[in-house]
Amino acid sequence: MSYKLILGDYAYSSWSLRGWLLFHRFGIPAKMEFVDFNSIGVAEQLKKYSPARTVPTAICEDGAILWDSLALAEEIAEREPQAGLWPEQPALRGLGRSLASEMHSGFSSLRNECPMNLRVAYSSFVPSESTQADVERLDEVWSYALEKSGGPWLCGRYSIADVFYAPVAGRIAGYGIGMSDTSQDYVARHLADPAFRRWRAMGMVRGDTLPWYARDYDTRPWPGPAAKAAMAVDEGRAENETCPYSGGSVNHLMEMDGRIFGFCNAFCRDKTVADPEAWPDFMKLV
User: Fold this and answer.
1) What is the C-alpha separation between 5 and 169, in angstroms, rounded?
2) Per CATH, the architecture of 90-198 is what?
3) What would be the CATH architecture of the domain defined by 3-83?
4) Fewest C-beta atoms under 10 Å: which of 69, 107, 112, 164?
């Protein structure tokens, strides 16, 4: 079955991250289309997919339009049972559905006070009382789930529940919010997840910097795995003759460890420069 997936900005759209992980993390192919957060409203850009008004929105091969993230996740889980989006064990599946539903409807103070911004990490944020209550609830449900399932993810293996909490992990890390060791380890697991790293790398190089997502706090380095040093270059002879992603001819170059690699376009190059080790197809060249 084929899908079209409409998403928003890589760096700022937390629900788009969920939609992308739902397909990418489970190996479900989808053709992606993006709306521009620095243009007219999202609903206006989605008019041709009415009644959808938000991202992510998925368009299925049979014409079904899925515009609510939880409904999208559940529908894709039914349409793609081989992908294993939910655990087979009923108790763990029920746990995962409860976790995803609470994320879908709750934690409004944390979401409002700490908008997702994967381009920056803060060091001087102090949560309000209501946001601290949200954090304590997260600590409670994460600790419970990880104990019940045995980890390393909320339902044992990675599932829709983890898809829904991935942007929350980005917020906890990005705003430097303290949690228990168990929860901090869970946050670190997301930040080290190659799929999360790929999404963030793309967010570092595509899209405008949107000032309305910025907050006036002291900043610090991103707390996830440090990216290997690399840079774009204009001259040199690439070791590879074709782009590691598209197989297209080489037109853009990057340097890493004194070696030159080539890519078919600037985005392929720049997302790799942002975090080379996040991209398995590139690392095969290395």
Assistant:
1) 23
2) Up-down Bundle (1.20)
3) 3-Layer(aba) Sandwich (3.40)
4) 112
